[in-house]
Amino acid sequence: MKYLLLVCLFYGVLAKHELYDGHAVYEIDVHSVEQTKLVHDFENDLLLDIWSHAVPGHPGKVLVPKVKRDIFENFLVQNGVQYKVETENIKEQLDKEDELLASAAERSNSSRIGFERMHTYEEVDAYLDELARDYPNFVSVVLGGRSVEGRPIRYLKISTTNFQDTSKPIVMMQSLLHCREWVTLPATLYAIRKLVVDVSESDLVQNIDWIILPVANPDGYVFTQTDRYWRKNRATRYMIANRCPGVDLNRNFGHGWGTASSSNPCQDTFHGAGAFSEPETEVIRDIILEHSSRMALYLDIHSFGSMILYGYGDGVLPPHALQLNLVGVQMAQAIDRVKWPSNRNYIVGNIFHVLYAASGGASDYAMSVAAPYSYTYELPAYRNSAWFDGFLVEPAFIEQAGYETWEGIKVGARAAAAAFRNGKAV
Ligand SMILES: [Zn+2]
Fold it and tell me: What DSSP string describes 362-420?
């Protein structure tokens, strides 16, 4: 009964997603640098939810509310920008996702953490305790701090030597910093499984200490049960006339803070009052600083787009960019070998050069103070099918997302650990 109730609470059997009724997804194709900037600025002025930036050769996706569709389309036509409406009403897809996830949850008929369904913040948090209880010599749970709304932000430390062997490299990974990117959670949960519960490659646990933070933005993740496309945290102190809560946590870190992000609380890339103004980013900063001398690899798992990106977000490359790129490509190839054929191959590159300028990102900060190998993964969250898009999760993909991403993580961890042992990390 309790389990059924949980399922109902999570998937929401009541009328949901009214907020997104009539919202359309546009695919925008730009052909010049001028058009790129024009479209980007207009999307920002309209406070649209930009899912991916359009750049020449790579169409972008943007979510447009019903009331803004006319003005947006007029702008595109007037400026000769090619576009197509990919989804007329996103609410239909949101309802479909609920239906698929709810029936997957019924089929799985288990309250245990697995890969048949999605898990709530509370379930994941309880799971961390369970692991620490079952593997006391190997796993510990640490309370890093509390979110804006007071939820514990807890992470796992996995080590055969209780983090006492200072000659070992550390690999840190996190998911759900952007809370709507649900498919990132299976990636960290799968890593936990392969490092703790079902260990098939013991070198990874013998040679490396691991830090895993599955829910980096707990308030946001809980809120996505109500508002599926929520991206930021739930800070209320910047609100304007009671509107526009939240800070984009991946623009709130202390590397280049505020140089390529928004000062407008109503935008999805709002950077907050200053670097680390939010408790959620403070927690991550403190972990990174505490372990800076040993952190060999840092992975911030996002979705979507099938990309492995490295810093810096302003396009400036670090001195070891060649090694960064090389390891990035090796990770991507490992994933590509086992990915679903319907998903495209991973793209590897510098954030700025592949996508756009972005400041205050977690992986930039980690690389600037600690981890020589630091990446943002953008997982594929869809099967390139016409009816299921962007951030939504197909139940059949949950385990695959965990499995294929782990193939990449392993390659990165081994490469970064080898570089650390050879003392030529940077
Ligand atoms: Zn993201």
Answer: HHHHHHHHT-SEEEEEEE--S-S-TTS-TT---HHHHHHHHHHHHHHHHHHHHHHHHHH
